Amino acid sequence: GESVGLHLPTLSVQEGDNSIINCAYSNSASDYFIWYKQESGKGPQFIIDIRSNMDKRQGQRVTVLLNKTVKHLSLQIAATQPGDSAVYFCAVASGGSYIPTFGRGTSLIVHP
Amino acid sequence: ETGVTQSPTHLIKTRGQQVTLRCSSQSGHNTVSWYQQALGQGPQFIFQYYREEENGRGNFPPRFSGLQFPNYSSELNVNALELDDSALYLCASSWDLTSGSLYNEQFFGPGTRLTVL
User: Fold this and answer.
1) Which of A45, A49, A99 sits opposite B45 (nearest CB)?
2) C-alpha dihedral (B27, B32, B36, B37), degrees to nearest 10
């Protein structure tokens, strides 16, 4: 089965810095990757996704990079703000069916 | 547009009891997925319902069961509760053209916090 891991359980940054959250996956057949943000007391909120036929995708202040060779993806947040403080999860799916495997999450702490 | 809602928000049960959790999907969505999130962990997929039929199941025992109703709302039932069932139970809805075939954005509810004593 798939295993998904994040490199750091906690990431502390200063307001205005760029943040990078990393994720590794094990199944080379994985073809859909999603980043979620979960604030305290809330369910996960979709941030951005990427399919395996791409290696980069950009949203508003966020960029996801996918390296299929080393089975690694990252989430970059530009000009991090205090409102970005949350737990970030990567999720990985394969086989054309949305049954994702989530990583354990990285807690992003943004200091004003 | 109404988002995904779940009830109750918190629940305390004792070992061996049964529990039913409820989810109202976002307006226009026909697919509901349930997840279990233990403290400090990522959500784990329990099962998914598409147009009232189970459409995929994670590694959970049969005492975890569900229903989806014609209005696409859903229930999660857990029998013979165990201490390890204590977790946040999340419901997510999406709109799928066909059963499980598309990667469509899932919208999560706030969850039900279940504590088993």
Assistant:
1) A99
2) -40
Q: Give the tokens for residue B108.
A: 């999560």
Per-residue pLDDT, averaged over A71-94, amounts to 95
Task: Count how many pairs of residues, chain A against chain B, have C-beta atoms within 8 Å.
Answer: 58
At A38-75, the pLDDT tens digits run 999 899 999 999 999 999 999 999 999 999 999 999 99
What's the pLDDT score for residue B103?
59
For the beta carbon of residue A13, count every other beta carbon within 10 angstroms.
17
Residues of B in contact with A43 (CB under 8 A): 4, 90, 92, 108-111
Please give the share of chain A, as a percent, with pLDDT higher than 70. 95
CA neighbours closer than 13 Å in the CB half-sphere of residue B33: 28
Whole-number average pLDDT of chain A: 91
Token output for A69: 């060779």
Name the burial class of residue A76, with classes exposed (0-12), middle (13-18) and buried (19+) by CB atoms within 10 angstroms of its CB.
middle
DSSP A7-21: S-SEEEEETTS-EEE
**Residue-level length of chain B:** 117
The DSSP result for B55-109, as a single string, is: EEE-S--TTEEEEE-TTS-EEEEE-S--GGG-EEEEEEEE--SSTT-S----EE-
CA distance B84 to chain A (A): 17
Q: What is the chain B residue with the closest CA to A41? A: B110
Query: In this structure, are residues A72 and A80 in contact, taking their beta carbons and an 8 Å threshold?
Result: no
From the list A41, A44, A98, which residue is nearest B103 (CB)?
Answer: A98
